[in-house]
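User: Here's a chain of 69 residues. Predict its fold as tokens.
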Amino acid sequence: MATALHPQTQMTFKFGDEILPRKYGFPMKIRIPTKLGFKNPKLIAAIFVTNEYPGGYWEDKGYNWYSGS
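Assistant: Prediction complete.
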């Protein structure tokens, strides 16, 4: 939650004054500057909130969950 609520975390639907184009992540892009680049989502299929940590793509491959600050 600390990462999601960080003031620099952005959920973007527009680029300039236009709807975000597909090449920039349509329909939505999430930018998390407190995480290393490989931890930033490339495609958002769903967002959910939970008190249990479900793991993830990189964690399932042996990387640590926190990568970044």
